[in-house]
Amino acid sequence: MTTTTAFDSWIACRKPNPQARLRLFCFPYAGSGAAIFRTWSEGLPSDVEVCPVQFPGRGTRLMETPFTQISPPVEALAQALAPLLGKPFAFFGHSLGALVGFELARQLRRQSGVQPVRLFVSADRAPQIPHRGRPIHALPEEEFLGELRRLNGIPKKVLEDVELMRIMLPVLRADFAVYETYAYSTEPPLNCPISTFGGLQDHRVSRGDLEAWRDQTSVSFSLRMFPGDHFFLNTIQPLLLQALSQELRGDG
Length: 252
Prior knowledge:
alpha/beta
């Protein structure tokens, strides 16, 4: 008989590792799911347990309603993941996922005083920098699809699949709503290192946007740039995992 725990719905593709010294929770970008991290354990140290986070509305949670604001998932994750935080843990988030990881770290600090040993933020401006550009989450469908094409984060064959896009559009709109309605509130810097990653050809997030994360930690900060656009984690994955491995070997 298997026992269902609170975190089971939130963590997908997890391979439990009793010998792990550290858990790495990974938060996906808008419109994507835990599956983008499914092979990461193969490229990271064997004593790191990869825990890909699955948000409602996709993958194994396809029939659930996606969140449209950041507080509900952050509060739910803080409760659900508590049983997995008994050993050292780190957060990795890309774009929207970076924002979720950051706010979850702050929520855990407020709630129980625990914090990640390191926060990895990828392809996202520092939270204190206001959102630039017009919001797109409520645009008419054709305009919204046009913006998605311009962002270049969804393969053309997926955008042209009418049935698939009918399923994906509500999730994409919800995720963009989370990002575009986010309101930063001032709190003391985190007491954990922050490592940032960016794409050299990313026209959405500049080096300065990434540098500004320095203000969110009271300890060490690092920035590393990779070849690629906003979605470089999909095109230079081995390089990214190598960088993560180097930093994680000193944590825990």
